[in-house]
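Hi C.,

You asked whether I'd gotten around to modeling the 202-residue construct. I have! Everything is below, sequence then structure, no commentary in between.
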Amino acid sequence: MEEMIQGRQYLIDLIEYLRPKKVVCNYGNHDKRFAAYFAKNLDSDILELLPDTSLELIFVDGFNHYDKRSKSKVWYEPLCNVFDDIEIEYIDDWKCKIGKTYFVHPLAYRSGTLATAEKAKDYLQDMTHEEFDCVCMAHTHAVGDTVKGFIRLFEQGAFADVKKMDYMDGRLSKPQKSGFAIICQDEDGNLIQDKSKIIVLN
């Protein structure tokens, strides 16, 4: 519950700072932990009452926090209702396509620089048969930028304080990187190559 409340506030702060016209969100591997936890601990009939990810509660449904100690109840409005002047859309999938760019956060991982992004590109080419010119990858907490064939691949890093994210300690993996991607498109949704880039924060 604390993670959901803090995550919701982080998103509100980020949206208020950026003031975009539209926000589109899809889920990632950590969001799927929500359903996995309940699947291990609850009866299947109760599972049908619950969403698959915490993002559904944060963005679409809203949620109550029942504090048993203080015997209080706090309602957290869904983000779709928080902002009157910003369109907010939650995509219940690990991928979403905007213009000709796929924004993806798969459950799978492949070690090596941009290897997960390339795996996602191959999957999308095989499964969707849709035209696209860019794959922007979350999940790896690495940063990278390359071109494979005619497809630009980005790994955008983690938009968080990675110094506080020590769950990889002792696994001898490469340090996580803070960063984000700027994706620029023309009016037809084509990637503007020279304006699209990765911003590395550390």
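If it helps when you're writing up: The chain has six helices and eleven strands.

Thanks,
B.
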